[in-house]
UniProtKB/TrEMBL annotation:
Annotated protein name in UniProt: MADS-box domain-containing protein
Length: 83
């Protein structure tokens, strides 16, 4: 990979990471509790709207204790306007 392409990829990744964290913060302002983990290479970046030891809950407890059931998104799934 050329140095120019590598620099462009780093800049693009940084900008996208900043955008997703800004969007997470906008959700927080709408009274949503948000926890976002981004792993890129050997680094992890975390956004947490709460500073409580119980937030975020473990993934298993989210699936067991919530009704209606949580909507999970992943690669290839459509992130629509599910309220």
């Amino acid at each position: 990979m050329s140095a120019k392409r590598a620099r462009r990829l780093r800049e693009q990744s940084r900008n996208r990471r900043k955008t997703i964290f800004r969007k997470a913060d906008e959700l927080r302002k709408c009274n949503a509790r948000v926890y976002l983990l981004v792993e890129m290479g050997k680094r992890c970046y975390i956004y947490n709207s709460e500073r409580q030891s119980r937030w975020p809950p473990p993934h298993e407890s989210i699936l067991e204790e919530r009704y209606p059931l949580p909507i999970e998104y992943g690669p290839g799934s459509s992130v629509g306007d599910d309220s």
